[in-house]
Amino acid sequence: MIFSLLECPNLRLKKPGWVSMPSPMMVYGVVLVSYFLVTGGVIYDMIVEPPSVGSTTDEHGRQKLVAFMEYRVNGQYIMEGLASSFFFTLGGLGFVVLERSNAPGMARLSRILHFCVAFTLIFLSFITMRWFIRIKIPGYLRD
């Protein structure tokens, strides 16, 4: 109903000559950097403004720096978010390498190396994330 009343103006807009289609690797790079920043909690860091690292007092009364905010699942220090984001991105890159290993015409040795690199990145990311969770929540996933 309302679209029958409205009419789009006839504009003759031209694309500037310096504007061109970005390359696929440029788009991939922008998506990867934004994935790194979003999984690192940059938006949370901007809103809450947590310190980069925390500190705790040990049994001798000395201050000790800590990178993980223990017992707080919904809170983080800046370095904790960036470290976690790095390993999330590393795991994601492992899946990208794994996908690239299925390219047609790839040599057998190159395919095996791609598989090894991909599984190493994915496994390293998985083990490190479990380790980070155990630091953040002591006693989690332990029998």
Question: What does this protein structure show overall?
Answer:
By secondary structure, the protein is mostly helical. 55% of the residues lie in helices and 6% in strands. It has helices at 2-5, 24-39, 42-48, 78-100, 108-136; strands at 54-57, 63-66. Strands 1-2 form a two-stranded antiparallel ribbon. Helix 2 (24-39) packs antiparallel against helix 4 (78-100) and helix 4 packs antiparallel against helix 5 (108-136). The chain starts with a helix and ends in a 7-residue tail after the last helix.
Which properties best describe this structure?
6% strand; flat; 5 helices; mainly alpha; 55% helix
Amino- and carboxy-terminal Cα gap: 64 Å
The main β sheet shows up as: 2 strands, antiparallel
**Main sheet strand line-up:** 1-2
Question: What are the segments in which pLDDT stays under 50 over at least 5 consecutive residues?
Answer: none
What is the alpha-carbon Rg in Å?
Answer: 23 Å
Number of strands: 2
- 3D shape: flat
Helix and strand pattern: HHHEEHH
